[in-house]
Amino acid sequence: MKQSKLLMPTLREVPADAEVKSHQLLLKAGFIRPVAAGMFSYLPMAKRVLNKIENIIREEMNLIDANEMLVPEILPAELWEKSGRYATYGPALYKFKNRQDRNFILGPTHEETFTQLMSDDIKSYKKLPLVVYQIQPKFRDENRPRFGLLRTREFIMKDAYSFSADQEGLDQAFHNMETAYVNIFDRVGLTYRAIVGDAGAMGGSDSKEFSAPAAAGEDVIAYSDATDYAANLEMAKDFYERQNAAVVPKELTTIDTPNEKTIAEISDFLSIPTSAVAKTMMFIADDKLVAVVTTGDFEVNAVKVQNFLNADVFEVAEEKQVRDVLGVGFGSLGPVNLPETVQLLVDERAADLGNFVAGANEDGKHYLNVNWQRDVKLSEENIGDFRTAREGDTAVDGKGKLVFTPGIEIGHIFKLGTRYSKALGAQVLDKNGRQTDLIMGSYGIGVSRLLSAIVEQKADDDGLVWPASVAPFDVHIVPVNIKDDDQVRVAEQLEKSLTAQGLEVLIDDRKERAGVKFADADLIGLPIRITVGKKASEDIVEVKVRESNTNIEMRLSEVVDSVSVLLNGDK
Ligand SMILES: O=C(C[C@@H]1CCCCN1)Cn1cnc2cc(Cl)c(F)cc2c1=O
Ligand SMILES: [Mg+2]
């Protein structure tokens, strides 16, 4: 393709609101343009990359016998009312009315849609296990879209759904999908880890996230430096064994703490470690107030609490909500004398405290020498892991220390079980002739997010660097002076012979100075650049491999073979 015909509006400067490398470079190189907050146009170069990524996904999906299809992006509210998600997914769910005043949503994901389809059309286990997938825009009204394509309000997702009549069918589909994901992420050239992920409100049991380490990543991956244990920090567990050490209980006393609100202030004021101070956080789970207690040296992990409670609606309580129920504000909260209506959860480390300090549930007052059972009834089923693991702690398997690194979630696969088939009455006759709920899995890849993840991991100071497998073009031919007959002849001859090899070629036929052409070539980052300069008269050109930034002078006759070799190592 001639670059003079290509829509690729490169910028000299980058808008200040672009904070991360992928956002800056994709704007600067003319790959994307903002339309509104969290909404982007994919210009031709980005669309070419998306096509390549999507085709790699298709190849790997088809290898595991997944059926590609496409369901509507607008969905009737009734479908989501049946699963209960119409009400529980808050402001992030785009809702609107049609001309008959009927309620619709913009699909953020499609469990209900596919489950309803199977409920209508699949009656016997003989058709199972069945895997379907689509590559489609998704809509989520994110509160704070940012970082370019990394967190948007409209994005492209590959979402797949598996249906089986028994658990082993799900296990098999989950395993096949995991294999396909490894192939996909390897082929697009990403570095990634499969980590323990939060199955969250999706129901079902375990889930696996695929996370690409990158400075711009919003997730934190916690991994052990001694084993292959790795988890999203939402789920990561540090090692702890219950002590059940007996303590001699001292007398419970109240002290005035008019100016001591935080754990640090209390621990300084009393000259005791934060681990001896109980931290109490209040949450609203569905419609109940929940008090969670950890030792003061840990943070309460909201995801672990929500999963423990299996709550649909879950949020941190506002101070006003707490004051309305307990008559006390933050800074003096504790587990002693909580009303029956408040559910108490205690982290296992806090459950082992004795003679500890806690808020007295009275403004400006704390208790000294609190002891479980004497001062607060505490049963085993309310004790668990409700803390956020800390870097440097021993990993849950007792081996190695936890190391943290930021990551971009590029995929997430879930064993859903029957959460949706029960809600939508999707049953089949099993081999014993009994009606059974379909067992499901759902499997996502953030396709547009992948594009940015590749940039985050591969770009260098000169610009984008595209792996050959997903590059918008394979080869960039840059004639230095398009007025020089030799250079034009050689450039055109190269374009013809490379294209004949099935390679996609971009030729910079613009009337620009050499410096501008070279800078733009580095910026857009095609894998191979062939500079046609003065030595064209001797049929000699310079080949540059963008990733390694190496330059090789080459005879024209060698170029086609060596370019194919240079590219195929990547394809
Ligand atoms: O999407 C998933 C699970 C899987 C991921 C793999 C492919 C199929 N879905 C989780 N999730 C995330 N954000 C959401 C946002 C909104 Cl507004 C919503 F209504 C629903 C969801 C939601 O369900
Ligand atoms: Mg996820």
UniProtKB/TrEMBL annotation:
KW Ligase (keyword) present: yes
Catalytic activity: tRNA(Pro) + L-proline + ATP = L-prolyl-tRNA(Pro) + AMP + diphosphate
Domain annotation Aminoacyl-transfer RNA synthetases class-II family profile: ranges: 48-467
Enzyme Commission code(s) on record: 6.1.1.15
Enzyme class: ligase
Keywords recorded for this protein, A-Z: Aminoacyl-tRNA synthetase, ATP-binding, Cytoplasm, Ligase, Nucleotide-binding, Protein biosynthesis
Highest taxon above the source species: Bacteria
Listed GO MF terms: proline-tRNA ligase activity
Stored Pfam families: HGTP_anticodon, tRNA-synt_2b, tRNA_edit
InterPro entries, per the entry: aa-tRNA-synt_IIb (IPR002314), aa-tRNA-synth_II (IPR006195), aa-tRNA-synth_II/BPL/LPL (IPR045864), Anticodon-bd (IPR004154), Anticodon-bd_dom_sf (IPR036621), Pro-tRNA-ligase_IIa (IPR002316), Pro-tRNA-synth_IIa_bac-type (IPR004500), Pro-tRNA-Synthase_IIa_type1 (IPR023717)
PROSITE patterns: AA_TRNA_LIGASE_II
Protein location: Cytoplasm
Domain-related comment: Consists of three domains: the N-terminal catalytic domain, the editing domain and the C-terminal anticodon-binding domain.
Family note: Belongs to the class-II aminoacyl-tRNA synthetase family. ProS type 1 subfamily.
Purpose of the protein: Catalyzes the attachment of proline to tRNA(Pro) in a two-step reaction: proline is first activated by ATP to form Pro-AMP and then transferred to the acceptor end of tRNA(Pro). As ProRS can inadvertently accommodate and process non-cognate amino acids such as alanine and cysteine, to avoid such errors it has two additional distinct editing activities against alanine. One activity is designated as 'pretransfer' editing and involves the tRNA(Pro)-independent hydrolysis of activated Ala-AMP.
Subunit: Homodimer.
Protein's name in the database: Proline--tRNA ligase
Protein source organism: Leuconostoc aquikimchii
